[in-house]
Design a protein that fits this description.
13 strands; Glycerate_kinase; 2 domains; Rossmann fold; five-stranded parallel β-sheet; kinase; six-stranded mixed β-sheet; transferase; glycerate kinase activity; Glycerate kinase, domain 2; alpha/beta; 387 residues; Glycerate_kinase_sf
């Protein structure tokens, strides 16, 4: 059983609410569902105070849901999916700020069951979502990346905005990263004018576009790229960078250029995007800091607490934000599984972790019964920290 490393802060009992700020448990619960289940568990565990739910995301899957939970309007559009079929995707908008989640149009979850398309998947649908947001008057577009099925360097996005990518015979290239190896010319004469729109690339990935730390080498295998596909894709992306940078300047080595299979490269080079860590920007977007005033505890979480968590995923970002605002507020985390030591958790600002596998070692049942199990973790947190 997870227990606090230190007792609750003296005087915490005089404070008011508990802030619940989790990411999704991928494959089982959305961030909002995790928050609701934790809150129900706290109540069952004897906590009668107020809970403030702030489901968040780090720029990947669930980013639009987090924005909607914070008061943004959801807008649905039919766009081109990763393998060319139409999919129903959504973005979020409030005032002149829109949140576009790339995975809503090019995510791995949108591929047909049992199918991967590392050489041919396209980001065209992401560009179509950007056009939809611009058409509704957005003057700032936050582009959240993560969970993509694509390694096309954002070429599909550019095509959706009006660019033409042609081979040596003048024929339009087919979709996907592999085809970029035949790229001969880039025609931007019909590119949609998006001047006046500020783009923010919200990502926890700082990889460059090319090389051993690049989009193809690091993330291609996760998208189904074989050992032979990886160098093919890397060479194709290098050709894309050579042609694109003749028109837009050098961005291949910029941190984040390799995000979402190189979509970050296109956003930096052609949209003038500035990169910000996804979780930090999303916390700002949902006014997380203001929810901490008077809080006695913050509960965050995600499906797996592991080494990736420490590289800027939601729980570490939440803990960092709490420490910057009020280090006297303890932060604990819920998760499906926890592969971090107590020392690693402590270094990340997390006082204790509560994992589903502590009460149900069968991973299949953890997925199937995630909701009730999270409630049981909420009861434990109430006993350890609040009652």
């Amino acid at each position: 059983m997870a227990v606090p490393e230190t007792p609750p802060v003296a005087g915490a009992e005089t404070r008011g609410h508990v802030v619940i700020a989790p990411d999704k448990f991928k494959g089982s619960l959305t961030g909002a569902e995790v928050a609701a289940r934790v809150a129900a568990g706290l109540k069952r565990g004897g906590f009668a105070g107020e809970t403030v739910w702030v489901p968040v995301a780090d720029g990947g899957d669930g980013t639009v849901d987090a924005a909607v939970a914070a008061g943004y309007q959801r807008v649905e559009e039919q766009v081109t999916g990763p393998v060319g079929e139409p999919v129903l995707a959504s973005f979020a908008i409030r005032g002149e700020t829109a949140v576009v989640e790339a995975a809503a149009a090019n995510g791995l979850a949108l591929l047909p069951p049992g199918t991967l398309a590392p050489l041919t998947a396209t980001t065209r649908g992401v560009g179509e979502l950007i056009l939809g947001a611009a058409g509704m008057g957005a003057r700032r577009i936050v582009l959240g990346v993560g969970g993509s099925a694509t390694t096309d360097g954002g070429a599909g996005l550019l095509q959706a905005l009006g660019a033409r990518l042609t081979d040596a015979s003048g024929h339009e290239l087919p979709p996907g990263g592999a085809a970029l190896g035949r790229l001969a010319a880039l025609d931007l004469s019909a590119l949609r004018d998006l001047d006046g729109i500020e783009f923010v690339l919200a990502s926890d990935v700082d990889n460059p576009l090319l090389g051993p730390a690049g989009a193809a080498a690091v993330y291609g295998p996760q998208k189904g790229a074989s050992p032979a596909d990886v160098p093919l894709l890397d060479a194709a992306l290098e050709r894309w960078a050579d042609v694109a940078e003749a028109a837009a300047g050098g961005y291949r080595d910029a941190p984040g250029a390799g995000a979402a299979g190189g979509l970050g490269f296109a956003a930096l080079a052609f949209l003038g995007a500035r990169m910000r860590p996804g979780i930090d920007y999303l916390l700002d977007l949902v006014s997380f800091g203001t929810r901490l005033r008077g809080a006695r505890l913050v509960i965050t979480g995600e499906g797996s607490l592991d080494a990736q968590t420490l590289r800027g995923k939601t729980p570490a970002g939440v803990a960092r934000a709490v420490a910057a605002r009020d280090p006297s507020i303890p932060v604990v985390a819920v998760a499906g599984r926890c592969a971090l030591t107590r020392d690693e958790l402590r270094a990340a600002g997390i006082a204790a972790a509560y994992a589903l596998t502590e009460i149900e070692p069968d991973m299949a049942r953890c997925f199937a019964d995630a909701g009730p199990l999270v409630e049981r973790l909420g009861e434990r947190i109430a006993a350890d920290w609040l009652t």
